[in-house]
Automatic annotation (TrEMBL):
<dbReference type="InterPro" id="IPR037217">
    <property type="entry name" value="Trp/Indoleamine_2_3_dOase-like"/>
</dbReference>
<dbReference type="GO" id="GO:0005737">
    <property type="term" value="C:cytoplasm"/>
</dbReference>
<protein>
    <submittedName>
        <fullName>Indoleamine 2,3-dioxyganese b</fullName>
    </submittedName>
</protein>
<comment type="similarity">
    <text>Belongs to the indoleamine 2,3-dioxygenase family.</text>
</comment>
<keyword id="KW-0408">Iron</keyword>
<dbReference type="GO" id="GO:0034354">
    <property type="term" value="P:'de novo' NAD+ biosynthetic process from L-tryptophan"/>
</dbReference>
<keyword id="KW-0479">Metal-binding</keyword>
<dbReference type="GO" id="GO:0033754">
    <property type="term" value="F:indoleamine 2,3-dioxygenase activity"/>
</dbReference>
<dbReference type="InterPro" id="IPR000898">
    <property type="entry name" value="Indolamine_dOase"/>
</dbReference>
<dbReference type="Pfam" id="PF01231">
    <property type="entry name" value="IDO"/>
</dbReference>
<dbReference type="GO" id="GO:0046872">
    <property type="term" value="F:metal ion binding"/>
</dbReference>
<dbReference type="GO" id="GO:0020037">
    <property type="term" value="F:heme binding"/>
</dbReference>
<dbReference type="GO" id="GO:0019441">
    <property type="term" value="P:L-tryptophan catabolic process to kynurenine"/>
</dbReference>
Length: 139
């Protein structure tokens, strides 16, 4: 899919756009007394790439690579940084919260309706299934 860019992008793109993406020291209008040094454009600045790494379990890298990827997060929005941190830390809050919500809105009402067996995904024992999924991802 990524190679499809060859159809729509002229190789001369580099000469026109790359100087603006290459980083360096910049002085922005209205801030003439301050300079900003930027690293330049990198796919590592995209939360998508680091999200895929977290999902695929490929985030075990050398210290140098980890440091670079970590520094690229400063170019992301705070919400993206927090999302990635939560993914890397196992996302326990969400899994525990999911069990609370299911208990309140599925298990409780089902018990009150005197259902014989509370069933979850594909007919599984609901709470056993949810807790097993949560516990299997604990670090």
């Amino acid at each position: 899919m990524l190679l499809s860019i060859k159809k729509a992008c002229d190789p001369d793109f580099y000469n026109f756009v790359r100087p603006w993406l290459g980083g360096g020291t910049w002085v922005f209008e209205g801030e003439e007394t301050d300079t900003d040094t930027l690293v330049g454009s990198s796919a590592a600045q995209s939360p998508l790439i680091q999200t895929l790494d977290a999902f695929l379990g490929t985030s075990d890298r050398t210290t140098k690579s980890k440091d670079l990827l970590s520094s690229m997060r400063t170019y992301m929005s705070r919400s993206h940084r927090e999302f990635l941190e939560q993914l890397q830390n196992g996302g326990w809050d969400d899994k525990d919260a999911h069990i609370v919500i299911v208990t309140l809105f599925v298990v409780g009402p089902a018990r009150r309706a005197e259902k014989a067996r509370i069933k979850g995904t594909a007919g599984t024992g609901l709470m056993v299934f949810l807790k097993d999924v949560r516990d299997s991802t604990k670090v």
